[in-house]
Amino acid sequence: MTTHVHTKVSDKESISHHYDLSNEFYQLFLDENMVYSCAYFRSEDDLSQAQKNKLDHICKKLRLKPGEKLLDIGCGWGGLISWAAKHYGVEAHGVTISQNQHDYAQKWIAMQGLAGRCSVEIRDYRELTGTYDKIVSVGMFEHVGIRNFPIYFGTAQRLLKEKGLFLNHGITVNKGRKRSTPESRFIDKYVFPNGELDNISNILHQMEEARFEVLDVESLRPHYAMTLKHWARRLESQKEKAIRSVGEEKYRTWLLYLAGCSYAFERGDVNLYQVLLSKQTQGGFSLAPLTREDIYKNADDSSLSYPGLYERRKTVIR
Amino acid sequence: MSGRKSIQKAEQIIQKILSGPSLNFAIRLWDGTILHPPSGKSDFTLVFSNKKAFQRLILSPDAMTAGTLYIKKDVDVEGSLFKAMHLMDVFSAVKLTSREKLKILVQLITL
Lengths: 318, 111
Hints:
The complex is a heterodimer. By secondary structure, chain A is an alpha/beta fold. Chain A has helices at 8-19, 23-29, 47-61, 79-88, 99-111, 149-159, 182-191, 200-209, 221-237, 239-246, 248-267, 307-317, and strands spanning 69-73, 91-96, 118-122, 132-138, 160-173, 212-219, 270-279. Chain A is 45% helix and 17% strand. Chain A has a seven-stranded mixed beta sheet, with helices on both faces. In chain A, α9 (221-237) runs antiparallel to α11 (248-267) and α10 (239-246) packs across α11. The longest helix of chain A is centred in the C-terminal third of the chain and has 20 residues, at 248-267. The model of chain A is unreliable at 300-318 (pLDDT under 50). Chain B has a four-stranded mixed beta sheet with strand order 2-1-3-4. Chain B starts with a helix and ends with a helix. The longest helix of chain B is centred in the N-terminal third of the chain and has 15 residues, at 3-17. The A-B interface holds A 181-183, 185-186, 189-190, 229, 232, 236, 248-249, 252-253, 255-256, 259-260, 262-263 and B 62-65, 67-68, 70-73, 81-82, 85-86, 88.
């Protein structure tokens, strides 16, 4: 098995290999919010709608309220922090170690008039400080390295207020499956250097070791197979532009990895879990309500379905 | 080895390791020769751009080799790439005796 070191310097290089490829290349196949993680489909949703559903699904699971401080660890191109600030009225802060993502996110935030309640900075998760009501991490912990899980989950625990919620969304590998396979070696060499997947049992164990209460565990495996298929089709339909942007070899690499990962999710070699955690070090119950019903309210509406919250957010600004 | 002989040997190897009604793809060799699956129906064509690519994939039919050959365009898929994703399962399902393996190895090396 390949052992990865995961220093701050090596992590920055690994992240840069993938995420600093080219913003315009990723724009060719991602949705308009530049969400590069598993979407959430309801029947015939297109990719754009499914990504909005996903952003809402996460914000609702976190029970975001206006004025709360939200931290996004590995915020990508800023899709989630902007969405949360815009539609849920939170003060959102995102960190990434990709220069390209940071620059794009900053422009995206400004473009939407969210500067002041939404911010992004280049920062390694190990260097984070501050206190937050809610923390989210989407598709980032695949880059952390299994050995660093105690530091990673410990950091989230340290930054959260008591009774704060943390949603961790990421890819896992089947328990019975070897961690190093020809597929994973290909991904490691050409696509995501230093990525490491663990199985959900171990991950839950690590979360509990970091003194989190596990509130909710949801598998989105079929959704990721669908998302990847959408991305691969969209990329294929933009073949010429993609090749102009990154060259033919990178285009073929990304196309193969998207199609191959879709197949891996379909076959069940890998899975995608959203795990909702609560910091409960002093006993009592978490902030999550008794049932999950609130998550599914207004499920069919998108961005404009939170007039109440939007108004209250306006009040906060004044 | 002359070009025609190489193609003949490659065809023999393919027939030895890939057979059965469930095969859903055609194969095109580097000289343009197309081999159709027994069913006659193919969802895609697996293209070998050169002899070396064929030798490498048959010798180590796994995702690392296939992926590397694909991104360098030594191997291509014409038609649905999604439907080609099970290719490595097809190759790894091949069951041969050591004698057959040795024979194929010799054929491959002298291709």
